[in-house]
């Protein structure tokens, strides 16, 4: 390890907090010194070793690193201006991104709010739901209906609709808004009878609470950080019907699932929500940006509320650099046969991970789109599993009882084989 690397890591350990990591007893971090394509270059004790990034930097870097089109978009916009307030001003990058989002999402979703992170977009969506209900004369409707097993972010309203027991925010019970939780949807391959039973239970919960419910929020088709849990598309239609029956707004949180990850460009193409949140892969992992899309009907309802406006306005709303690179990322995605690419990744993950079912301690192996998951019957030893994956040439970030991967779409077949081997090494070590 070089002296410079040692100094960097020493300062990091002494002063920098990392996500869900103790400040006083931090787990090890690895120093990244470069990145290209689907690979990260690790410094410190790894002496510049390249590893396949199985995480896409938490599911965002779908085009990998140092993509020439995205790099060029950043440089070109920086040469004009990097930021300008969105209050009272506008600019071409925001308009161009808005036009792309409207064009690529279901037709009723024509109004776009540009937020600055996924969690913020969910906060904005929930504000929209509440303001809409006030605007249409139902101010007593203040609670959200959701399902167990979900995760929607780390800010306060987001935590309130995240699984209150199995999620990461149980310690905040009693301080958060009290939402209404229904059972987790059945597994993706569940028989029709299980789906029907779940639907009956969900309808019963909605019937009991309809007078106080303002909306429904779910991660469609795949619950992400709550457990990497895929569920049947038929459940989405049930949610749509319940929302329509009771005058609720249906919110789809596609921050993790959008831009092709599940094999659908957006799951909202299957069932159209009233409000759609997107983020993560929106900028190809280059900058933080999210968007909330909604309908004219919702916009009119919000405008009829006492404020007449959406009560939210982030400083970096519509950041030009982020908007420019987001448009470039969308163009790269739509300029290729992304569905075939995602399908190919999914097929290789499915076949490659299938033998892990026979390992001791493995409870389940599942795939959906470009997502591969191995669920253990115990919590993963994250340090041991991570070390084993790196030794196999792969970067993974297991959590709870899951070793999983969401690789960049630019990953090669050889890199996919390395990724599968790394997942196996992590499972055996964890």
From TrEMBL:
The record marks 20 as: Participates in the substrate recognition with KAPA and in a stacking interaction with the adenine ring of SAM. Pyridoxal 5'-phosphate binds at residues 118-119, 253, 314-315. Pathway: Cofactor biosynthesis; biotin biosynthesis; 7,8-diaminononanoate from 8-amino-7-oxononanoate (SAM route): step 1/1. Substrate binds at residues 58, 151, 280, 313, 397. The keyword Transcription does not apply. Its cofactor is pyridoxal 5'-phosphate. It catalyses: (8S)-8-amino-7-oxononanoate + S-adenosyl-L-methionine = S-adenosyl-4-methylsulfanyl-2-oxobutanoate + (7R,8S)-7,8-diammoniononanoate. InterPro entries: Aminotrans_3, Aminotrans_3_PPA_site, BioA, PyrdxlP-dep_Trfase, PyrdxlP-dep_Trfase_major, PyrdxlP-dep_Trfase_small. The modification N6-(pyridoxal phosphate)lysine is found at residue 280. Belongs to the class-III pyridoxal-phosphate-dependent aminotransferase family. BioA subfamily. NCBIfam families: bioA (TIGR00508), PRK05964.1 (NF004624). Catalyzes the transfer of the alpha-amino group from S-adenosyl-L-methionine (SAM) to 7-keto-8-aminopelargonic acid (KAPA) to form 7,8-diaminopelargonic acid (DAPA). It is the only aminotransferase known to utilize SAM as an amino donor. Homodimer. This is Adenosylmethionine-8-amino-7-oxononanoate aminotransferase. It comes from Nocardioides aromaticivorans.
């Amino acid at each position: 390890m070089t002296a410079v690397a040692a100094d960097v890591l020493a300062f990091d350990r002494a002063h920098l907090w990392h996500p869900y990591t103790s400040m006083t007893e931090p787990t090890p971090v690895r120093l990244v010194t470069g990145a290209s394509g689907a690979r990260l270059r690790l410094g410190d004790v790894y002496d510049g070793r390249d590893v396949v990034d199985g995480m896409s930097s938490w599911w965002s870097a779908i085009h990998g690193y140092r993509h020439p089109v995205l790099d060029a978009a950043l440089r070109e916009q920086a040469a004009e201006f990097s930021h300008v307030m969105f209050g009272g001003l506008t600019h071409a990058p925001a308009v161009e991104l808005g036009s792309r989002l409207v064009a690529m999402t279901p037709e009723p979703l024509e109004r776009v709010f540009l937020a600055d992170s996924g969690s913020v977009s969910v906060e904005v969506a929930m504000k929209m739901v509440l303001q809409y209900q006030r605007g249409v004369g139902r101010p007593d409707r203040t609670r959200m209906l959701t399902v167990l097993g979900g995760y929607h972010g780390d800010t306060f309203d987001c935590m309130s609709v995240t699984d209150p027991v199995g999620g990461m925010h149980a310690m905040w019970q009693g301080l958060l808004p009290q939402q209404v939780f229904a059972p987790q949807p059945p597994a993706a391959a569940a028989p029709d009878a299980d789906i029907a039973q779940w639907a009956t239970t969900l309808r019963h919960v909605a019937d009991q609470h309809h007078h106080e419910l303002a909306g429904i929020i779910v991660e469609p088709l795949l619950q992400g950080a709550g457990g990497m849990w895929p569920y049947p598309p038929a459940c989405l239609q049930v949610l749509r019907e319940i929302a329509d029956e009771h005058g609720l707004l249906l919110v789809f949180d596609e921050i993790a699932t959008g831009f092709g990850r599940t094999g659908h460009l957006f799951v909202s193409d299957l069932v159209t929500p009233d409000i759609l949140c997107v983020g993560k892969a929106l900028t190809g992992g280059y900058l933080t940006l999210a968007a909330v899309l909604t309908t004219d009907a919702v916009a009119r309802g919000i405008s009829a509320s006492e404020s007449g406006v959406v009560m939210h306005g982030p400083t970096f709303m519509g950041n030009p650099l982020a908007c420019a690179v987001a448009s470039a990322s969308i163009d790269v995605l739509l300029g290729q046969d992304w569905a075939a690419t995602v399908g190919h990744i999914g097929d290789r993950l499915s076949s490659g991970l299938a033998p892990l079912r026979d390992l001791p301690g493995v409870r389940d192996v599942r795939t959906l789109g470009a997502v591969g998951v191995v669920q253990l019957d115990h919590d993963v030893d994250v340090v041991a599993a991570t070390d084993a994956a790196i030794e196999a040439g792969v970067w993974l970030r297991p959590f709870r009882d899951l070793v999983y991967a969401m690789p960049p779409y630019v990953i090669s077949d050889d890199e996919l084989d390395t990724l599968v081997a790394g997942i196996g090494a992590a499972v055996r070590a964890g």
